[in-house]
Amino acid sequence: MSLQGVAAVRMLPAAPRNLWAAAWWRYARNRVRVLAAGTALVIVAASVAAPLVAPTRYDVAEIAESLQQPSPRHWLGTDAIGRDVLSRLLYGGRTSLEVALAVVALAVLVGVPLGVAAGFAGGWVDYAVVRLVEISTALPALLLAMLLISVLGSGIGNAILALAVVAWIEPCRLMRAQTLALRNREFVEAAWALGAGTGHLVWRHILPNTVGPLIVVITLTIPRMIFAEASLSFLGLGINDPLPSWGKMVSESVSYMQVYPVLGIAPTVMIALMVLTLTLVGDGLRDALDPSRGQPTGGLR
What family is it from (predicted)? Predict the structure, then answer.
């Protein structure tokens, strides 16, 4: 090998050896997904800090300033009863994220134990869980959520509960498949032969090896729940006044779109941005954490 070749090899970045460092190394190579992650972080940070950065509270209304065009006083104008659109946009993002994260948390709390139990125990437990998943999958998710809310009533708590009823399926199916694949691996059988109990096997060997795929599912579920909450709120079945959400803001703008399009365009753009960026982040994590790719070998592709 020539001296130039040796120098070029030495200049190549060393491949990270840690699993998570290697995953980040693969993820960071895609600039579009890095940009998507940065955009999502900015939106989340602005929504979380809404009480600090919003010009006014979301429920402050000034009838004399209703349907104002964007101006230095109101950067995105005001709605039909004089509430600042930018403030409601920031608080609406906070509401949408709160609903999505709460739904995902409930889905994980229900779906993960059911999936692990089905995959590890087998027998009638697996049969019952699989039948329950099949029945739940056969029902249209959004229509089922609408039915539950029509029975329970609208509101943020009922919206979270209704969406969680249909969101647990994906974590459950994932964990069942992962547990079935892991329970016959050599390290699990070795621990079992050494006298490890079921709880030890699950906590020390099964769950740690399913963290990567579970993170991907969670990341991809969050934008779906944001869109589902927006759909319910658009139909008037989600968030109650005066609490804003992006879907509710779109619904309230329908009557004014021809004369004041910003009222509907702003929340629609935020929904699209959040769903798109989080979906790109989820796809990027899925590729980065895919074991079939193996450890990176260094160099540029």
Answer: Belongs to the binding-protein-dependent transport system permease family.
Q: What are the boundaries of each domain within the chain?
A: 34-293
Burial (CB < 10 A; 0-12, 13-18, 19+), residue 10, is exposed
Q: What is the dihedral of CA 46, 50, 54, 58, to 10 degrees?
A: 130
**Contacts of 14-21 spanning 24+ positions with Cβ under 8 A:** 14/298, 15/295, 15/296, 15/297, 15/298, 16/296, 17/295
End-to-end CA distance of the chain: 21
237, pLDDT greater than 80 = yes
Q: What is the rounded distance in angstroms from the CA atom of residue 83 to the CA atom of residue 66?
A: 7
Tokens (6 digits) for 262: 């910003």
- Cis? peptide before 244, omega within 30° of 0: no
Directed axis angle between helix 31-48 and helix 85-121, to 10°? 110
Q: Which CATH number fits domain 34-293: 1.10.3720.10, 3.40.50.300, 2.60.40.2470, 2.115.10.20?
A: 1.10.3720.10
* Coil/strand/helix, residue 84: strand
* CB atoms inside a 10 Å sphere around CB 41: 12
Q: Tokens in use for 193?
A: 């032969």
Report pTM.
0.82
Share of the chain above pLDDT 90, in %: 31
